[in-house]
């Protein structure tokens, strides 16, 4: 197996090239096989990309992968400078699906490198066929797009990644609050600063985006604080890169002290409990994991298999169907009706007494 560890590139007072090199070094010490620079918002500049890749290659000594988005318009140049610095992998998207909140176009990078020592040797004619196919596919999903028509350099102010922008537009549209878009964009960096400059990548991007939306839509900042934001402030998402604003912390958790340990250490060991509960129905570790995560799906499947029927693909299909249902329900969520509603809530956490997973007691999605 190959373990690739990611460092989430972002900007703000805690972050500089030294910070990311130190983080990558710790990941290497933990056994990572390669390092990915995940520039989810398209914030990395070409010359920072060159410096960071060069430092990682020299100081950490692992293969380096650069993942960037075209939101700000800098990604193609950043990829090229990273290639000059010796990057091992860059992410691109076929031209029909590239640009804006996506990645730089594959064909452009291929043509740029043709005839150089980093020549990809990809066939541009075949890539053109692929692009033509996906140009038609894209038309089917046009209503899910973010609405961007060109690069948006405001991302350098707001630091919002493409996926978060798409979710933001979708959620505001669902609430008939698209007129609040600019106000929410401006609120995001304020909330991010108050929460200690978390990188805007899942799940922290959802936490910041949710809180910013609530602040704007309700017309009063922090009138409602979702439970997941409170959990973040309590330390259940790890230590923030910078201190959290004391007043925001007081509003969220009062005099409660944030935890100072690894959050997962507070969760009961779910595997042993799952192993005991499922018993001889499990033939291997994969069966135990399936039961621990999806008990209402896995148990009937394992019982049916024990009786001589069904293949493992059935449980995979059932789980995929339930996950799709959950995503569809999230897309239809209207914000906010109570203090724990989160329009971007995507994470679940095992409860103190049981790995509750994604499925409720009736077999439906939470």
Tell me about this structure.
There is one protein chain. By secondary structure, this protein is mainly α. The chain folds into three domains: 4-144, TIM Barrel; 155-264, Orthogonal Bundle (Cyclin A, domain 1); 267-366, no CATH class. It has 15 helices and four strands. The protein has a four-stranded parallel β-sheet with strand order 1-2-3-4, covered by helices on one side. Helix 2 runs parallel beside helix 3. The chain is globular, with a radius of gyration of 23 Å. It starts with a strand and ends in a 35-residue tail after the last helix. The model is unreliable at 333-366 (pLDDT under 50).
Summarize the structure.
The chain is mostly helical and 366 residues long.
Q: How much helicity do the residues have?
A: 40-55%
The gyration radius over C-alpha positions equals 23 Å
Which regions are unreliable across 5 or more consecutive residues at pLDDT < 50?
333-366
- Tell me the CATH superfamily of the largest domain: Aldolase class I
Name of the CATH architecture of the largest domain: Alpha-Beta Barrel
Number of strands: 4
- By helix and strand content, what is the structural category? mainly alpha
Q: What is the CATH third-level topology name of the largest domain? A: TIM Barrel
Strand content: under 5%
Distance between the termini: 33 Å
Order of helices and strands: EHEHEHEHHHHHHHHHHHH
State mean pLDDT (0 to 100 scale). Answer: 86
Q: How many domains comprise the coordinates?
A: 3
Query: What is the name of the CATH class of the largest domain?
Result: Alpha Beta
What about the largest sheet? 4 strands, parallel
Strand order of the largest sheet: 1-2-3-4
Shape: globular
Put simply, the count of helices is 15
